[in-house]
Each structure stands twice: as C-alpha cells, then as structure tokens.
Amino acid sequence: MFEKDACSTDDLNDEKMEYSSPVVIVRKKDGTPRVCNDYRKLNKVVVKDRFPLPLIEDILDRFQGSRVFSTIDLKNAFFHVDVNKDSRKYTSFVTHEGQYQFLKVHFGLCNSPAVFQRYINTIFRPLINDGIVLPYLDDLIILSSSFEEGIERVERVLSIASEYGLEINFNKSHFLKKRIVFLGHVVVKMVKSSPLL
User: Coiled coil located at which positions (predicted)?
Assistant: First the structure.
C-alpha cells in the first residue's frame, strides 16, 4: 500500500526508534486508498526550509507571448529526492508489518515542497533561464510559440526527465495545447480566471 522502495527497515530490527508518526488512510478522488503519514507533530518542531515556491502571478506573467502549451505531471515526484541519512529517523512510522523510515522525501513533511522545488529547479535550470520550462512542484509547463517549436521543446524536457529518472504521469499530462488549465487559471494566449473554480 505504500512505496516500499522509498522505505527501509535497515537498522531498525534491533532497536526501538525514538520517533514515529501515525499512519492514516485517505481516499483519492478515484476512490482508491492512499496511505499517508500524519506528520503534524513533527512539522511543528522542524526547522523550516524557506526555499521559495514560484509565485503564481510570476508564472502567469511568463505565459505571455506563448501560443502552444504542454503540461507534464511528474509521478511520485517527491520520491525522486533522497532523505538525508541523519534525518531518516524522523520519518519513522509503524505498520502491522514493522517499523519503517523513508529513504526518499515523502509528502506530508513540511519541507517536502521546498526540497523538491529546489531539486526540480536545479535539473531544469538552463530551460528555466531560457523561458522554456516553468516548474511548479510536480508540474512542468512548457511554453512554445508554435507546434513545431513545442514538439522540439517537449522532446528536450522528456530527455532531461529520462536522464534524471523522473517518471511522467501521461494520464495527467497534456501536450501541444492551445488552452490549458493551470492552478485555477485557464491559459489561452492570455491569462484569465478559470470558470472551473
């Protein structure tokens, strides 16, 4: 029920971990269960990573001049980033199968968004600087002025994603569209408020 590749029982069998957060089950939109950890107590005492997420207004401004848009949804995005070995003990949780700690960054931890945004910005830095890609957590927006340019840019982004082992959720990704919905806004050559909200 949880990503065992992202967890470990290493060095946990012979010692009792001093930290553990409760496990809770929530339902996804499609009704399937998702195993989550309740890190509220841990999040209250963790030193916050202040790496900034992009401002929505800045992202929307960067859409100006683009005519063709692609959005890529990264699957299990946080699980691409390793947890520092000294910090793993804080991610500990117990199930009926034993005690685990996360080897990869997990959602629910207050620093996960900042850590992942820094990671994804580093990977796509050249394309960000060239105005080709706008990463916002697990979403990548690819800006293009034409379909031909869009194809070339999507290929570049997919190549980099493959190089870093990023998994694409193709069911939630959209390619070479004249209209996209992004963070509550409909984007079509110019930005306007989304009627979907």
Answer: none
